[in-house]
Design goal:
The protein has about 575 residues and is α/β, with parallel strands linked by helices. The chain has helices spanning about 10-25, 40-55, 70-80, 95-105, 140-150, 170-175, 180-185, 190-200, 230-240, 240-250, 255-275, 295-310, 325-330, 345-355, 395-405, 415-420, 435-445, 525-560, 565-570, and strands spanning about 1-10, 30-35, 60, 85, 90, 110-115, 165, 205-210, 215, 315-320, 335-340, 360-365, 380-385, 405-415, 450-460, 460-465, 480-485, 490, 500-505, 520. The chain is built from 19 helices and 20 strands. Helix 2 (about 40-55) links the parallel strand 2 (about 30-35) and strand 3 (about 60).
């Protein structure tokens, strides 16, 4: 049995949102204890009364004098004899949240605390690690992606995070409650408990398949101690290795692969599931990609944006020739600010209407060869599938050089003329000037001499892999083998890429780290393979029907031969 403790102090609006979500996504059989720590706000009383009317089995404790967060949750944990989940009143839960926490706890009897992913949860923050991310516009979309993607490895944490934390009763009985005497009104008490648990052989873990949104800065924040200050000094004095443990965790970032998998899952969810819920889409003309496109073109475009998002934390980004705006919207999830430009007024108007509500995203009319931005104004220029639509590549690269800050870098893609056009005899009517690899490298190299070139090619997955020798690794011969017609094997670098994706900067030290030598992308439904199977079935059915029709025609011809010649001439039947 697990009970939920929700300490309450003021902030009626966020409390209402929290309780509504708990009511919607938590079974009636789960005990819930609300503790109103003398809020002195009639609106809080109304919110609690409304919740209790819907859930009469919930319990309520009301303080006449304010006790502070630590004493309030201690009171709740002391009153109960079950495992508990401490849930801040400025959180929002979603489907499967409590099942996820309980499943994680059941995976190992030595787990003392469980913390889920959240937008605002320090070392458990998503999408940006150790940062305060804004509340997701659609919590359910993020939570569903985390639930589908979670590996259920439940990695160890140096400390849990108290916004939403499962605590095993047996650990509470052994270790005792939070240290209210030392940590007063709040901050550091859950870290102290987790350190005590760790030293006693217990585990503090991340529930990597569960997400609980957290606004932060509400409710008890009005009275509790803020991060740092005297409480942090007390914590470090008691546990001298605390900072080192946390620093090592941040430096190694063992949960990064999990966050990256969630990135790709959310990108897929946004494009395939939410597109129909958004504003009317732009028509697909063959020149401009839209997220309503499916199969191969969707893979190619979405993979690029999903990969580069991890390089943009804290950076101001120019997305040039942004088109429909879907990619700029994805970049804005991780970047500090995204300025998205396109030469088409129709595209800018559409993108603004569809995605412009994101606070870190702005759409403008703009020309890649004459960018209306000050010099040294952006950290990153993103230019996907743009250069081949222009003839004046020199002006475009000059403008990139001008608007980039000294330590900035460019992320640019281009089709490889050798494979995109020459090898198949294809001409894209919208492409003005395509480039071969050497031309692409030299064009960018006029201003950005240090380059890291990747190839992209679609099979039933989209693959991005390093081409330059400094990043060649064992995956070429071990992890990914390409089989020739004669049965010999080779590495992916020997494949002819269809597109190039390049990182470029003025100095080698300005090139960002963070991309692997091999990056693969696919959607859970395997839509390209499903389409392939669908087309194969159609072809097989068509082939069978053709054989049937040919056989029928043969029978008719044979019957016709038995009709007397004079009657065939009379009826004008062909022989």
């Amino acid at each position: 049995m697990t009970a939920i403790i929700i300490p309450v102090y003021k902030a009626a609006n966020v409390l209402r949102r929290c309780l509504d979500s708990v009511i919607q996504y938590t079974s009636d059989s789960v005990p819930v204890l609300l503790i109103n720590d003398a809020s002195d706000d009639p609106a809080v009383d109304q919110v609690i009364a409304s919740a209790l009317a819907l859930r009469p089995g919930w319990q309520l404790i009301e303080h006449t004098l304010n006790q502070g967060f630590v004493k309030t949750v201690n009171e709740g944990m002391a009153q109960l004899d079950t495992d508990v989940i401490l849930l801040n009143s400025d959180t929002v839960v979603s489907e499967g949240w409590i099942d996820g926490l309980q499943r994680c706890a059941r995976s190992d009897a030595q787990i003392a605390t469980v913390t889920p992913f959240s937008n605002n949860a320090e070392i458990c923050s998503y999408p940006l690690f150790c940062q305060v991310n804004p509340m997701p516009e659609k919590v359910s979309v993020v939570a569903a992606a985390v639930r589908r993607t979670g590996s259920r490895q439940y990695p160890d944490l140096p400390t849990g995070v108290g916004f939403c934390m499962f605590i095993r009763r047996r650990a509470l009985d052994e270790l005792g409650l939070f240290d209210a005497e030392t940590y007063g009104a709040g901050y550091g008490e859950e870290n102290d408990f987790c350190m005590r648990a760790s030293m006693a052989g217990w585990r503090n873990v991340l529930c990597d398949d569960t997400f609980v949104a957290h606004q932060g800065g509400q409710s008890f924040a009005q009275t509790e101690h803020q991060p740092g200050g005297e409480n942090l000094k007390k914590l470090i004095q008691r546990y001298p290795d605390y900072e080192q443990r946390v620093a090592e965790f941040i430096q190694t970032d063992p949960i990064r692969p999990i966050r990256e998998a969630i990135d790709l899952e959310i990108a897929s969810s946004l494009s395939l599931q939410e597109a129909s819920d958004m504003n009317q889409s732009l028509p697909f003309t063959g020149e401009r990609f839209t997220p309503e496109c499916v199969r191969e073109i969707w893979y190619e475009h979405m993979h690029r944006y999903a990969i580069v998002g991890r390089l943009l934390a804290g950076k101001t980004v120019l997305d040039i020739a942004c088109g429909e705006g879907y990619g700029s919207s994805l970049l804005a999830r991780s970047a500090k600010r995204v300025i998205a430009m396109d030469i088409s007024d129709e595209a800018v108007q559409h993108a603004t209407a569809r995605y412009g509500s994101q606070s870190r995203l702005q759409f403008r009319h703009g020309d890649a060869t004459a960018i209306d931005l000050p010099a040294d104004s952006v950290d990153v220029v993103v230019s996907f599938e743009t250069i081949e639509h222009l003839s004046d590549h020199a002006s475009m690269m000059c403008e990139f050089d001008r608007v980039l800050r000294p330590d900035g870098f460019v992320i640019i893609s281009s089709p490889d003329k050798a494979t995109y056009s020459d090898a198949v005899g294809y001409r894209n009517e919208f492409h003005v000037r395509e480039l071969y690899r050497e031309e692409f490298e030299s064009t960018v190299g006029v201003h950005f001499t240090h380059q890291r070139l990747y190839a992209q090619k679609l099979g039933f997955i989209s693959s991005l892999y390093a081409l330059d020798q400094s990043h060649q690794t064992d995956f070429n011969t071990a992890s990914w083998q390409v089989i020739d017609e004669d049965g010999s094997t080779a590495g992916p670098a020997e494949l002819d890429p269809l597109y190039f994706v390049m990182l470029a900067a003025r100095q080698a030290s300005h090139l960002p780290e963070g991309l692997s030598e091999l990056m693969l992308f696919q959607d859970r439904s395997e839509s390209v393979y499903a389409h392939y199977q669908h087309e194969i079935r159609i072809n097989m059915q068509s082939g069978a029907r053709l054989i049937e029709l040919e056989a029928s025609n043969e029978r008719l011809q044979q019957q016709l031969q038995r009709v007397p010649r004079w009657l065939r001439r009379l009826l004008k039947l062909s022989s």
